[in-house]
Amino acid sequence: MIGLRRIGPDEFTLRLDAVLHVYTEAMNPPADQIAGRRLIMGNHATHPAFTCLFAERADGTPVGIAYGFHGVPGQWWHDVVRRALVEKHGEGSARGWLGDALELAEIHVHPDYQGKGIGRAMIAGICAGRLERTAVLSTRDRPTAARHLYRSIGFVDLLTQFVFPGGHERYAILGTVLPLDG
Ligand SMILES: CC(C)(COP(=O)(O)OP(=O)(O)OC[C@H]1O[C@@H](n2cnc3c(N)ncnc32)[C@H](O)[C@@H]1OP(=O)(O)O)[C@@H](O)C(=O)NCCC(=O)NCCS
């Protein structure tokens, strides 16, 4: 039996090992990137209106994690994506999508628990009750389960084949208007 539980920034910071475990199992990142990811996640917990859900087994072990926060200028992802949106679609579009946005930073489900509705339930739970106008995120621009899931929830492509500075993978930047349908 899996339950969803809201986690505040303090508990999130204390449970970073468990968060990283789910992340590592789900994403299988190169080992030399994990320490950097840990620092980035720890910093995310300090962002405004941080919200997180753990999907937990009955014994309290997290098997899914999802979190986001209010995007503001000065945050790396926000600034990079804003610049790219201005370039591609103009200032009005960038302001419309990012001016009052919940930025969904991470959503991962342990492979043993994927395909059971946990990812969909966590996104709905993270977005529920948020006061922002939009929700935005980035995901690899490939035919993944994540891409399928986001599209089915109502996210649309804002940018495709986007390469973050210093990276090489191609990403899609997606957005939807809040509240989510249904
Ligand atoms: C993306 C992810 C969070 C979705 O979580 P989940 O609990 O597996 O998703 P759900 O069970 O809620 O399923 C959502 C949809 O994705 C589909 N899906 C799930 N796993 C799939 C897979 N391996 N291949 C294709 N579709 C898949 C489901 O069929 C479902 O679609 P449907 O409702 O139309 O049938 C999870 O697959 C994951 O952690 N993936 C690896 C890490 C990742 O890519 N994270 C997102 C980074 S942006």
From TrEMBL:
One of its GO terms (molecular function) is acyltransferase activity. InterPro entries: Acyl_CoA_acyltransferase, GNAT_dom. Gene3D superfamilies: 3.40.630.30. Keywords: Acyltransferase, Transferase. Residues 2-176 form the N-acetyltransferase domain. Pfam families: Acetyltransf_7. This is GNAT family N-acetyltransferase. It comes from Streptosporangium vulgare.
